[in-house]
Each structure stands twice: as C-alpha cells, then as structure tokens.
Amino acid sequence: MSAYGATRALAKAALDKKSERIRKGLAVVDSKAPLSEVARRWRTTALIASDRRQSTKELYAARCWLHIELGILAEIPLSRMTAGDIEEWIVEARRHGISPSSLRTDYTVLRAVLDTAVRDGLVAKNLAEHVDRPGVPRTEALHLAPAQVGALLDKVATSRHALPILLAAVTGMRRGEVLG
C-alpha cells in the first residue's frame, strides 16, 4: 500500500488514513466512478434483486433514471461527492417544482444507491445519511361540520348511497372500511 503527499508528514497522514479504513473494513479509497454509473448498476441489479413490491421497483427505477442518473449529481465521482452536493440537488429539485413526496422518494432512492455503494466497497460512508430527509408537509383531512352532515343525509335520504354515508358519518369509518 502506498500514499502520496506534498510533504513526508502529509504522505504519512494519507497512509495512516488508508490503514485506518482497512482496519474498519472500509474501501481504501472511494471510487472515481460517477454517480450515474453506480446508480445505473443499482437500478439494474440490486433493485431487481430486492424483495420490494414490483410497483415499488418500477417507481424507484423510473425515479433513479430520471433524477439521479440524469440529474445534477450524475457526473460527480463518488470520491468527490459531498453532503453539500446532495443538499444542492434537493434545492434544485424544489426549484424545478418536484413535489415534496416525489423528492422524498428520490432521496430514498439516492440513499439506497449509496448504501449499496458502501456495501460493495465503492465508498466508505453514505453521504446521504448526513443530509436531512426532505419533509412532506402534513395537511389536515377535510371534514364536514355537523350541520353539513345533516344536510347531506337529508339530500341522499332516498338514494342507494344513504346507508353507507350514514354509516361513515356515525362511525367515522374510512371509505374503504364502509365499502368492506
């Protein structure tokens, strides 16, 4: 094993860093492969081999191809990627109107790609772990006031939908529970 540095002390520090990574079971040096290449490999192997549902695999594959393999992080080598690059990617996605839930999915995919890169020894750590997961704003469900419920029940009293509506109003059941 060898290491280089402008001075003897820097070369020794680089060699010590490599030795420490080996002791920890990490990659000696991070891969120079661009993220797009690593993401494509994840999409065509690890994702397919995973036990995720087929619909999830299809969603993740599409998001990976469009927003990671072709996104602003695509050509950055793993060895030079920083948490700041990932934060910039999130900011750009928001600027381009990516919905919060889609951005959260994209982040999940990126984190899975980088987890696989760590597992495969391409990088020592997953930088996405150091970036907060994008949030999705919570919205309160719409509901009717008691007077509105009464008016609705009066209007549908002779309809075949009266009983399911009454059941939902009285019990608070969700639509699927009432229909079940």
UniProtKB/TrEMBL annotation:
DNA-binding as UniProt keyword: yes
Coiled coil feature spans: none
The organism's place on the tree of life at top rank: Bacteria
InterPro entries attached to this UniProt entry: CB (IPR044068), DNA_brk_join_enz (IPR011010), Integrase_recombinase_N (IPR010998)
Keywords: DNA-binding
Transmembrane segments: none
Name listed for the protein in its UniProt record: Core-binding (CB) domain-containing protein
